[in-house]
Amino acid sequence: MDTLINITQFLLSLSLLILLHEMGHFFPARWFKTRVEKFYLFFDFAPFHALWKKRKGETEYGIGWLPLGGYVKIAGMVDESLDTEALKQPPQPWEFRSKPAWQRLIIMIGGVTVNFLLGFLIFAGLLVFFGKAYIPNSSLQHGLAFDAVLIEQGFRQGDVLLQVGNRPLDAVDAATFIEEVVLNGAREVTVLRDGQRQTFRLPEDAAERLVKEKVAKSLLMSPRIPFYVAELAPGKPAEAAGIKPGDRIIGFNEQPTLFYDEFTPLARANKGQPARIRVLRGADTLTFALTLTPEGLIGVRPRVEGFYDIQRQPYSLAAALPEGVRMGVDFLGNQIKAFGKMFSGELSVKENLGSIISIGKMYGTSWDWERFWTLTASLSILLAFMNLLPIPALDGGYVVFLLWEVVTGRKVSDRVMEKAVTVGFFLLLGLMVYAFGLDLWRHFFQHLF
Questions:
Q1: Is 387 exposed, middle or buried (0-12, 13-18, 19+ CB in 10 A)?
Q2: In which domain, by residue range, is 209 found?
Q3: Of 19, 239, 312, 425, whose CA is between 20 and 30 Å from 320?
Q4: Is the same domain home to 31 and 95?
Q5: Does residue 391 form part of some domain?
Q6: Is residue 296 part of a domain?
Q7: Has residue 409 been placed in a domain?
């Protein structure tokens, strides 16, 4: 039943995003009197073809068997179906290739436009219905854990940030801290340290260092927590060594690590190296030998529940709309940074790239509507960005060709488009197969070896 709930949530979210994305192409095509031959949720590639289909007017509507996307087949357009027979005939008035470049451009960007707007609106809706979660300073049992960039500027682990410049803070708020330091030039901060208020001055280059390091807001400062194991990653070092959920990790080699923020820098400094992990299990202290991953991980998720309170700030619709856009832009910015780190080699592609299996598992095995809509909004924005990549067979590839035509006045030939789309299609197919293979190994086979 848990697996069924997980799959149902994922398919529901994915179906919604695909249908609305394809509508973003379908309706502009119809407005410009362009014939749409097919509208499909999921792909209907051979050998199984469509699970269901029905023709209405000039369009065949259907549901395919492969849940990796969907498509609208527009007459006179070179697409991922690689069906080019019709292109050998003279152009017809209802075909895509006969329309002005600006109309074709609107048709092509319609899908990603819908996905961006949908993501922003869902984030705004979440704020209206659930409010914005925040952590009051008064609920922090062990203060805050700070990233190294703030430790270097005078913060200490366990401090509680009370004021930055002239702006008091009564909740954990990395965004406001960055705004005051980077945009408003604040340099004095007040913290609660060992039960006493203390004020100190940040270095003059604090803003420059914050911008340069580009630390995610969620990592810049977060509640300090003891390191209890909540969940083990399958096939990772902690599971193989015998560490169990509920254990409290209290030591790394010979050094005590009573808090999660004490453990992580030691682990990162010993990437791929053998280590002895000391844990507290009930009244017993146990030591486990393991070898860290190349990223400096042992494969556990720390428990965060019970060490601080999460409260909700209500939002009106007028306030939620711009905040929803900001949330979407922040999410996309973080994803782009992650892709950049994978491209540069700072993050392992093998460990971080995932397919629909990894995405699907994020939805969980119980119905949580806030999580469902948060993931749906995030996935909508991510799909919009991925579709805008300038790769032939994606919307972004067509947009590049159309912009070339608008700027130069010269249309890219159907022959060139056909070859480019073919190369792009097989490039994307190879990437999808690679990501799917990584997930199969990670989730189903790695623990067998």
A1: buried
A2: 137-223
A3: 19
A4: yes
A5: yes
A6: yes
A7: yes
Q: Which CATH number characterizes residue 167's domain?
A: 2.30.42
pLDDT tier at 274, thresholds 50, 70, 90: very high
Distance CA 141, CA 146 (A): 15
Last residue of a domain, one of 271, 300, 329: 300
CB distance 246 to 281 below 8 Å: yes
Given a cut of 60, whether residue 86 has pLDDT beyond it is yes
Decide if pLDDT at 82 tops 60.
Answer: no
Q: What is the total count of domains within the chain?
A: 3
Alpha-carbon distances of 113 from 20, 116, 183, 381, rounded to whole Å:
10, 5, 31, 10
CA-closest candidate to residue 170, choices 32, 295, 37, 309: 309
The DSSP element (H or E) to which 2 belongs, if any, is: helix 2-31
Domain end among 285, 300, 315: 300
Confidence band of 347 (pLDDT split at 50, 70, 90): low
pTM surpassing 0.85?
no
pLDDT digits (tens, 9 = 90+) for 324-341: 999 999 888 877 877 776
pLDDT of amino acid 175: 82
How far is 22 from 80, CA to CA, in rounded Å?
Answer: 14
Residue 68 CB-half CA count within 13 A: 12
